[in-house]
Amino acid sequence: MTTTRTLNRITREQTAFHDFADLVKARGKYRPTIELSNWDRRRLAESYDRHQELFGDERRAYTYMNAAMAAAEREDDHELALKLNENPYRPNDSIEVYSNQAMRDGWVLAVIGDEILIEYEMPAGTTAMLKFTVLGGKLRHMRNVSYRDCPKKWLAAIREAGMEWVGMGQRGNWPFPKEEK
What we know:
Order of helices and strands: HHEHEHHEEEEEHEE
Number of helices: 6
Number of strands: 9
């Protein structure tokens, strides 16, 4: 089940509507046309159809796949899935994340497989770290990571990427640890 906040974000990103409620309450015979090129669009179409069915509305989303996507799906589903799940993030990439009730500017510290570790800045100048799993090019499964207890695999990945954290936590400055010998 997709949360209302997620549906609102997807609706803003993928349509001209302000939120999901505006989309499902569109006047007249309007129904969205959604090209199913990514997971968010598929979720939006499924959620729209489920909502309309639940409330007795006959409208359903028009959905389609462009010819290249349909051909790729027929030719090699596995290869398409690998392409969709490719992690597009690299160390030192700028990134914007939703944390602490607002969008925050951050940067990628390290990448391990389908996970990324980012550091972001709060308005008062403090920083914090988050770990995400990347699925279909989108950030999923957010977890906080503390400077004090940062896992060794992430410390090694940060070093390998040639990065260091700012480390301005709410409880003081946490310098990036020296490499253990």
